[in-house]
Amino acid sequence: MSTDIPAIDPLDGLRAPQDPDCDVFLTGTVFLDIIFTGLDSAPVRGTESWARGMGSSPGGVANMATALARLGLRTSLAAAFGDDHYGEYCWDALAQGEGIDLSLSHTVRGWHSPVTVSMAYEGERTMVSHGHEAPPPPAFASTGAPATAAPRCPPRARAAIASLAPGRSEPWVATAARQGAVVFADVGWDETGRWDLDGLTDLKHCQAFLPNAEEAMRYTRTDCPRAAAHALAERVPLAVVTLGAEGAYAVDAATGTTAEVPAIAVEALDPTGAGDVFVAGFVTGTLANWPLADRLAFAGLTAALSVQEFGGSLSAPGWAEIAAWWQRIRTVSDQDPAALQRYAFLQDLLPAATRPWPLRRAVPTIGFRP
Fold first, then answer.
1. Nearest to 105 by CA among 130, 81, 139
2. Which terminal CB of the chain, N or C, has fewer other CB atoms within 10 Å?
3. Which of these, 67, 71, 65, 75, lies nearest to 290 by C-alpha position?
4. What does the pLDDT average to over 114-123?
5. Residues whose CB falls within 8 Å of the CB of residue 348, separated by 6 or more in sequence, listed in order
6. Phi/psi of residue 262, each to 5°?
7. pLDDT digit string (tens) for 30-46?
8. What average pLDDT does range 196-225 have in this prediction?
9. What is the DSSP string of 59-100?
């Protein structure tokens, strides 16, 4: 995590004594990610491939938790951790390295950590994962709740992030909403093939829904992602549809405001975790009360910066990366002035960058000790 610029609190000036200590609460499965990069092509059966780069980091829900924490939000994560070296490494990396509150997380004795091996090549990735569902902690033993579930009484928080799945309801989502949290939701691929919005039962508790274009069109039976966003805005106050290389489009149902921001053209090294970083950037801007278009632009920028490094949580940008990008982009002679103006809101947020572009992170490796 970058520490060579002063810490930036995006909610500075908005905090009050009665506010919750937690800015964002989330829950899910933490994986150990082992990422190979620098592959010229996909592995071929019966051959051995050598990668020019490798890194290890916490993955899964840790991607989004790390992205939130690096943007200055006080982040609380409830998750199960194995009692193996992988679990110990992930816990330390999140708690000590990123400052994430793990007081609602727990270590499961005799359970090994889920692992994902990710191979990045040609701007895409191929992943192989392995893991077993953890037994529920004692607090959940009588309820049958999965080990990755949040406490039945989640902490008071400004916001919460839920991952919706067809036919599944998480009681903590309704509780968080009742306690005043702004609930943001994403969704994964519907393996059932039904694509039924009514099956996303927790959507009624959410203030914002952020699917990608394909998911949005399938759920709304539309053939245009922008039309899908308007259809979703009939079900949720704020619909945000990510358009991949085209950027993102959002509809605010309360005000009728729409916004569309193009993506930043970058040379992608590894897209792992880019969607999580986008959500983290959008949550940050929303809690900071930025205009809708600024939120989309910031979310797209953080995602663009992330795909230029490999790994999920490894690549999540902090304010140092954002400041360095803003300093550099204004020195490029052929920049479109209108495009630069789109990001002018950063000027009042950022201190002067103290590191030149491009930036390179230290890559964590299991086994090294101070």
1. 81
2. C
3. 71
4. 84
5. none
6. -70, 160
7. 999 998 877 888 888 99
8. 97
9. EEHHHHHHHHHHTT--EEEE-EEESSHHHHHHHHIIIIIH--
